[in-house]
TrEMBL record:
InterPro entries: aa-tRNA-synth_II/BPL/LPL (IPR045864), Biotin_CoA_COase_ligase (IPR004408), BPL_C (IPR003142), BPL_LPL_catalytic (IPR004143), Transcriptional_repressor_C (IPR008988). The lineage of its organism: Bacteria, Pseudomonadati, Pseudomonadota, Betaproteobacteria, Burkholderiales. It catalyses: biotin + L-lysyl-[protein] + ATP = N(6)-biotinyl-L-lysyl-[protein] + AMP + diphosphate + H(+). One of its GO terms (cellular component) is cytoplasm. Its EC number is 6.3.4.15. It comes from Massilia yuzhufengensis. Keywords: ATP-binding, Biotin, Ligase, Nucleotide-binding. It is an enzyme of class 6 (ligase). NCBIfam families: birA_ligase (TIGR00121). One of its GO terms (molecular function) is biotin--[biotin carboxyl-carrier protein] ligase activity. Pfam families: BPL_C, BPL_LplA_LipB. This is biotin--[biotin carboxyl-carrier protein] ligase.
Length: 254
């Protein structure tokens, strides 16, 4: 992967950096946030300490995945970023569809292919000096899922061999363009501009699901999509409720 080549293929006007290996691209950009002056895409050939939501490890293979983070500054505070992980899911879904890979979205921040996880999204924030908020958007995208990695995960996971055959720089430029366009739209209009598209890709629409937090079942009901703030709508025995994104897991009821 070549940073200058990726930047030349992209219309996003974002600085691009490529490193062969690091612990976590999210951690690297968060540490640099106080001195950043422009958006930065940091791509790693391999992350040795990649993280998922709720502190979980993100396992990946250098040859079979893309791992990168994008630092983007918003003018407001973190409370204005409600729904951003879902908007990023929409951006990835649309970009991957244009590249020939159809995906679905799992609330609040997973991209699925044929029911298995294809990509994860982790967003972390830090206040910017002088005001505003830096959002560091980390993405791990499986291209090829080796058997040994799937065994380490302990569950099935998806791959996208078609994307693995693409030139990496071209693929990254396409994803960067989709993300940058969506981030500008989100800054202007919030998640409401993405809500309908998210619901079109909702993996478990109309299925009975349970919301679990720290092993405890909080809610159960029919998944009815999300509202324009990104809350999951559940039709329960007591009526419709809206669930805020947080450290929760969504499980289709067996």
């Amino acid at each position: 992967m070549n940073a200058a080549h990726i930047a030349s293929l992209s219309h996003a006007k974002v600085a691009v950096e490529v490193v062969p290996e690091t612990g976590s691209t999210n951690a690297d950009l968060l540490a640099r946030a106080p001195t950043l002056t422009e958006p930065v895409l940091l791509v790693a050939g391999h992350q040795s300490a990649g993280r998922g939501r709720a502190g979980r490890s993100w396992l990946s293979s250098p040859e079979g995945s893309l791992t990168f983070s994008l630092a983007w500054k918003f003018d407001g505070g973190p409370q204005q970023l409600t729904g951003l992980p879902l908007a990023i899911g929409v951006a990835l879904g649309d970009a991957l569809a244009q590249l020939g890979v159809q995906v679905q979205l799992k609330w609040p921040n997973d991209v699925l292919k044929d029911g298995d996880k294809l990509a994860g999204i982790l967003i972390e924030t830090q206040g910017a000096p002088g005001g505003g908020t830096w959002a560091v958007i980390g993405i791990g995208l499986n291209l090829i899922m080796p058997d040994e990695l799937e065994a380490r995960l302990g569950r099935s996971a998806a791959g996208a061999p078609w994307l693995a055959r693409m030139e990496r720089d071209v693929l990254l430029a396409a994803l960067l363009d989709a993300l940058a366009d969506s981030l500008r739209l989100f800054a202007a209009q919030g998640f409401g501009a993405f809500c309908a598209r998210w619901n079109l890709r909702h993996a478990w629409q109309g299925q009975v699901v349970t919301i679990i937090d720290n092993g405890q079942v909080l809610h159960e009901g029919l998944a009815a999509g999300v509202d324009d703030t990104g809350r999951l709508l559940l039709d329960t025995a007591e009526g419709r409720i809206a669930v805020l994104a947080g450290d929760v897991s969504l499980r289709v009821k067996e």
